[in-house]
Design brief:
Number of strands: 7
Distance between the termini: 15 Å
CATH class of the largest domain: Alpha Beta
Helix content: 25-40%
Strand content: 35-45%
Number of helices: 5
Number of domains: 2
CATH topology of the largest domain: VC0802-like
Shape: globular
CATH superfamily of the largest domain: VC0802-like
Largest sheet: 7 strands, antiparallel
Structural class: alpha+beta
CATH architecture of the largest domain: 2-Layer Sandwich
Length: 142
C-alpha cells in the first residue's frame, strides 16, 4: 500500500502556506495532492516521497496530520480508462470513498489514487482485471 498523508488546514489566510513551507524546508517533494474544503477547514491529501518524514515534520510544527493507506493504479489515459477500474471495483462490491489523479511522465498513462473500504480486495480486483497496481516505491519515485 501507498501511504497518503492528510493534513487538516484551517480556512484562514496563510494556513496552507504554513504546511507547504514546512514540507519545503524539510526537503519533502510532493508527488500528488488533492484538497477538499468546508466552511471552516480543508483536508489536504498528499502523496509525498517520504511520508513518515513528512508526518514528523508537520507534527513538529503542531499541524494536525494523519497517515492513511491508499492504492495507486496506472490506467490508460484514454476514454474509458477510469471507467474500467471503477466498474471492476463495483463488480467486487468494493466501495470507493474518494479518488484523485495525476498525470504520468512516461507515456500514455494516468495514475489514480484510490481510497476504498477494502484496499486488499480492491488491489486484487483491479490487478485481476488487467489494471496495474503500483507498489509504494514506484509511486514515491514518480
Amino acid at each position: 500500500m501507498v501511504k497518503q498523508i492528510s493534513v487538516f488546514v484551517e480556512n484562514a489566510g496563510g494556513k496552507l502556506a504554513k504546511v507547504t513551507t514546512a514540507l519545503h524546508e524539510g526537503g519533502i517533494d510532493i508527488r500528488a495532492l488533492s484538497i477538499a474544503d468546508t466552511t471552516d477547514f480543508g483536508i489536504l491529501r498528499l502523496i509525498v516521497k517520504d511520508p513518515d518524514k513528512a508526518v514528523a515534520i508537520l507534527q513538529e510544527k503542531n499541524i494536525l496530520v494523519k497517515s492513511t493507506d491508499v492504492i495507486v493504479v496506472e490506467i490508460d489515459d484514454e476514454p474509458g480508462g477510469l471507467n474500467k477500474a471503477i466498474c471492476l471495483l463495483r463488480d467486487k462490491g468494493v466501495a470507493l470513498e474518494y479518488l484523485y489523479a495525476f498525470a504520468g511522465k512516461k507515456g500514455n498513462e494516468a495514475y489514480v489514487i484510490m481510497k476504498t473500504d477494502n484496499e486488499e480486495l480492491a488491489a486484487k480486483a483491479l490487478s485481476d482485471g488487467g489494471i496495474r497496481v503500483l507498489e509504494a516505491k514506484e509511486v514515491y519515485a514518480l
